[in-house]
Amino acid sequence: MNIFIGSLPFAVKDEGLREIFEGYGEVASARVISDKFTGRSKGFGFVEMADDAAAQKAIEELNGAEISGRAIVVNEAKPREERPSNGGGYGQRRDNGFRRNY
């Protein structure tokens, strides 16, 4: 089962996230998501656990738990939705890019 963890303190790294969940069962992977430009944590991550029952117990017991003064949000991760590709979000110019000086 894939688990979403939100409101993580920015100091938590992959290994720290793994340690939190290993108390509930085998952790297949643990990843804190970071900004690709700065490398700084975005404050959320994902943990994948092999045993669904252990994952469910971890969700129930860790949702709302406090880590370094922050109450974390823990729930089952939803499948990633496809985003429409529409040119990078800048939109199109109505005048096709040409500027007229009248």
Gist?
With 102 residues, this protein is of the alpha+beta class. The chain has helices spanning 14-22, 52-62; strands at residues 2-6, 27-34, 41-49, 66-67, 70-71, 73-76.
Model description:
This protein has one domain (2-78): RRM (RNA recognition motif) domain (Alpha-Beta Plaits, 2-Layer Sandwich). It is 20% helix and 29% strand. It contains 2 helices and 6 strands, in the order E-H-E-E-H-E-E-E. The radius of gyration is 20 Å and the shape is globular.
The number of distinct structural domains comes to 1
Give me the secondary-structure category. alpha+beta
Sheet having the most strands: 4 strands, antiparallel
Under CATH, the homologous superfamily reads RRM (RNA recognition motif) domain
Q: Extract low-pLDDT stretches.
A: none
- The dominant shape is globular
CA(first)-CA(last) distance = 62 Å
- Overall mean pLDDT stands at 89
H/E element order: EHEEHEEE
Helix content: 10-25%
CATH topology: Alpha-Beta Plaits
Strand content: 25-35%
Query: How many DSSP E strands?
Result: 6
Order of adjacent strands in the largest pleated sheet: 2-3-1-6
* Spatial extent as radius of gyration: 20 Å
